[in-house]
Amino acid sequence: MLSYLKLFYYLVRPKTIFVMRISNGLGDNLLLSILFPHLRKKYPRYKIVVETPWKELFKNNPYIDWVTDKHFKTTKRHIKPKYYVDKNTKTSFIEQIMSYIGENKRGFPELYLTKNEIESIKRQFPFPYITICPVGKTVFSANRKEWGIDKFQELINLLTDYKFIQVGLNTDPLLENVIDGRYKSIRKTAAIIFNSMFFIGLEGGFMHLSKAVGKKSVIIFGGYIHPKISGYDENINIYTSLDCAPCYCSDTPHKPCDSMKCMKAITPQMVYEKIQTHFL
After folding, report:
1. Among residues 36, 86, 110, 236, which one has the fewest Cβ atoms lying within 10 Å of its Cβ?
2. In terms of pTM, does the model score above 0.85?
3. Which among 86, 101, 116 is the end of a domain?
């Protein structure tokens, strides 16, 4: 009840800007954070309210005034940034999102961890280690972003001199020779990534989470979406350029790909060599 009263207060307060979630996805919600420094600079006297199911992503963010998972009215002061991607898209997620506030700059997502959150993870998972997540979200993309558990295992087996912590859901298959860091809160997962050497995973939410805590990543893109659209330049972005790639389209959920030739072209040895060259 108190949350609704507070939301009503901001709705009747003229100088309030509401930023609404793009979707329920982790990455899409985290990408909203790129807007806040620019909104604060542009409207210094306004209150900034974020409506999102991922409230914990915005805890301690100095550019916003309140975060809520409630919504009961959309006004002209609501910003609901979206992005559209098909085979011909040349504009990145971030550039499309920034255009909703009239900016053409490139921002990046940010998540603000406390010293206590970081120190707690350091005690539980002492440095050095590499963070890894071998599974992605398949609701929209079907199998098209999946590299395969076996290939991630082969990669770990090539990096025998390094300790690994696996993050993700407790329902994800657990790799061999890793420390189990699954089924943690999103902030604890962010702290695990923050405290690591770097992150290895697939294009998606954890890629953005790693960027949000200032950590570089090794991202297996395959041919689903081009790194220039959703990735970050400082990462190792492994993309397969084929006639059928990229195949991502925002219009409708995808059907499984039978060939997966874009992912099959990426070998564990190839990824290992890129890691050795650039990160180790």
Report:
1. 86
2. yes
3. 101
